[in-house]
Specification:
Blueprint: E1 3-8, H1 16-24, E2 34-38, E3 44-49, E4 63-64, E5 71-78, H2 81-88, H3 98-109, E6 119-127, E7 132-137, E8 146-150, E9 153-157, H4 160-166, H5 175-180, E10 194-195, E11 200-205, E12 211-215, H6 229-246, E13 254-256, H7 261-270, E14 274-278, H8 289-299, E15 302-306, H9 310-324, H10 333-345, E16 350-352, H11 357-360, H12 365-372, H13 374-379, H14 386-389, H15 402-410, H16 419-430, H17 435-445, H18 448-460, E17 465-467, H19 473-481, H20 484-487, H21 496-505, H22 509-512, H23 524-528, H24 533-544, H25 552-557, H26 568-587
Parallel strand pairs: 13-14, 13-16, 14-15, 16-17
Antiparallel strand pairs: 1-3, 1-9, 2-3, 4-5, 5-6, 6-7, 7-11, 8-9, 8-10, 11-12
Helix pairs in contact: 2-3, 6-19, 6-21, 7-21, 9-26, 10-18, 12-15, 15-16, 16-17, 24-26
């Protein structure tokens, strides 16, 4: 189930055709049917794009609970729905899904049911008993949901461009886009359209037109783990072995297998029939395909290797940017896109990937740099990251505040108003003095949003359901609770507890002993300074003729060559492709 849209207001039923068109614009998210339904009182119309994963005979949504009149549109998966149905006394037939459970749970206990859900979801519920529309997202924002107010009505959709097509929405350049390549918080590049924050319930009272937003879960509220490392490892291993397999669908699926620690552990626990990896010929630094092949062989899976080149990039860029809705920073975007395309070509509908451990278990080099300092990291053999470490090099005697250090490491452009610095400082303050937990909260406030949203948007462009098993609630909360020494005790070896769990699972030493993190990195930045330089310049110059004045400095910055770690040119090119897509949409 991959897309929702709708409208609530006193005269909503008069706009039923509009809602139908909104749903149709997202039809690629749910190829098994796009339908819409009006509430019995005519004050809400909900649309849903349905992707059937296990039950091909299941009815597409939206879903209506006859007795209460509650109407539901649902995008996502509730992994613990059968356990919660038993706990709450909710009857389910053998073939009924998590959507049926959620509908009855809401009718029975209302919004408080959100606290018991473990999964990824974006939901819209109209409850005629209280005359209100409710929107909610999962704890970590795996499923997107945008909304806007217009003339006393509230409109919402899974894709921001669906809402931009609903009414005028001027483009706005948020300063954060220049600073870290992505909007932050709930902002979007469209004036008047907001992203609903993760773990948030929005209630819209139709009679009064009032809005109320409530955060129903906060990671920082989790109490610290106080046991020994041995106890922590035992607990972590049990939770890992219990929770990861619950995210495997009851059908054939693919795993994105980079050959790194995170995806390799998933391979051993999920046992996917197909693994997909991405390799760039001639780019040995980025090539982990040999390890991926070994892992696939160990679990008896077919390994499919995708080998894109620079010509592929020029061909797919328009569709990739259309799928993303707007430019957002992510170094692995092209690799991920090509992997999803191959999974769809294989006829599969579900794909899993390894998001999570880097953020919650100190897996990024930037974490090491803040925790141990640049000298210690470079001395530990991480010389390839000297350009990143250089951001923390300063005059002797100058003491860098951790929030300042973390800010320098995530910035990719100017931050004159110190918005990113303030965002990171506030996140660290919420961690109550624990630096590792503060870095996790800082990641969630900055770099996390484009990672999790590109995964959903690019997969949905190919009618795939993307699952991230490490984001199981119990696993996330336990990882956050662990003291820093359980996560990292050496500058070049983050994710300590996951490495030890992988070792116990029998993974090869090349996986749990590796110090370097690659993931699905790509050579796109070097292409843009090499064989694609003239093409990139032409794309950016074309966009400059269409872009608003406020966006032109960003585009113009991409006309200058960049270094190995500089993504300015890539960001400008993605913005250029996006503007071209906006022009095409406007003409249509």
């Amino acid at each position: 189930m991959c897309g929702i849209a709708g409208l609530a207001g006193a005269d909503a039923v008069r706009h039923e055709r509009t809602v139908g068109a909104m749903g149709a614009s997202q039809a690629h998210r749910g190829p098994d049917g796009t339908m819409h339904a009006a509430s019995s009182d005519g004050r809400a119309v909900l649309a849903m794009n349905t992707l059937l994963i296990v039950g091909p005979q299941a009815m597409p949504g939206p879903y209506l609970e006859d007795e209460s009149g509650v109407l539901l549109a649902f995008n996502g998966e509730i992994y613990n729905f059968r356990q919660q149905a038993a706990a709450w006394g909710i009857a389910l037939a053998a073939r009924e899904s998590d959507a049926h459970f959620l509908l009855r749970a809401w009718a029975k206990i209302g919004p408080s049911c959100l606290e018991g859900l473990d999964g990824m979801f974006a939901i819209a519920v109209y409850d005629p008993r209280v005359g209100g529309l409710f929107l909610a997202r999962d704890r970590l924002g795996e499923k997107p949901l945008y909304w806007r107010l217009d003339g006393g009505r509230l409109a919402f959709a899974s894709e921001v461009t669906t809402l931009a097509g609903y009414g005028a929405a001027p483009l706005v350049l948020r300063p954060e886009v220049i600073a870290i390549e992505t909007p932050t918080g709930v902002d979007t590049p469209f004036q008047g359209i907001q992203l609903l924050a993760p773990a948030t319930l929005l209630a819209f009272d139709i009679a009064s037109g009032s809005l109320d937003q409530h955060t129903y879960w906060k990671l920082q509220d989790c109490q610290p783990f106080t046991g020994t490392y041995s106890e922590a490892l035992a607990k972590f291993s049990v939770v890992l072995a219990e929770q990861i397999p619950l995210r495997a669908p009851g059908c054939d699926f693919a795993l994105l297998l980079s050959g790194g620690l995170d995806s390799s552990v998933l391979a051993y626990l999920l046992r996917p029939p197909v693994c997909v990896t991405v390799r760039y010929p001639g780019q040995d630094r980025l090539d982990e395909s040999q390890i991926a092949a070994q892992i696939a062989s160990d679990i008896g899976a077919e390994l499919v290797v995708v080998e894109p080149d620079h010509v592929d990039f020029t061909k797919v860029l328009p569709h990739m940017m259309s799928a993303l809705d707007y430019p957002m920073g992510n170094a692995s975007t092209f690799s991920e896109y090509m992997a999803y395309r191959k999974v769809a070509e294989l006829g599969l509908r579900v794909v899993a990937g390894g998001l999570g451990p880097d953020e919650f278990l100190m897996g990024y080099v930037r974490h090491c740099l803040v925790l141990f300092g640049p000298d210690a990291v470079l001395a530990a053999g991480m010389d390839a990251y000297r350009p990143l470490a250089a951001k923390l090099m300063h005059a002797a005697g100058e003491v860098l505040d951790p929030a300042e250090a973390a800010t320098r490491l995530v910035l990719r452009g100017p931050d004159p108003e110190r918005r990113i610095r303030d965002l990171i400082a506030a996140a660290m303050e919420r961690a109550g003095g624990d630096l590792a937990r503060g870095l996790t909260l800082a990641d969630l406030a900055t770099a996390w949003r484009p990672l999790v949203m590109t995964s959903d948007k690019l997969a949905s462009a190919y009618a795939l359901e993307r699952r991230s098993p490490y984001l199981a609630r119990e696993l996330v909360e336990l990882s956050y609770r662990l003291p820093v020494e359980h996560k990292i005790c050496h500058p070049a070896e983050g994710k300590r507890i996951l490495r030890d769990a992988a070792k116990a699972l029998g993974l090869p030493r090349e996986v749990w002993g590796s110090r370097d993190k690659l993931g699905f990195a790509s050579p796109v930045p070097s292409w843009l300074n090499g064989q694609l330089a003239a093409w990139a310049d032409a794309q950016i110059h074309t966009a400059l003729t269409e872009a608003p004045a406020s966006w032109r400095p960003l585009l113009e910055s991409g006309l200058k060559p960049g270094g190995r770690f500089d993504r300015t040119r890539m960001q400008a090119l993605m913005a250029a492709a996006w503007f071209c897509d906006q022009t095409v949409r406007a003409a249509a």
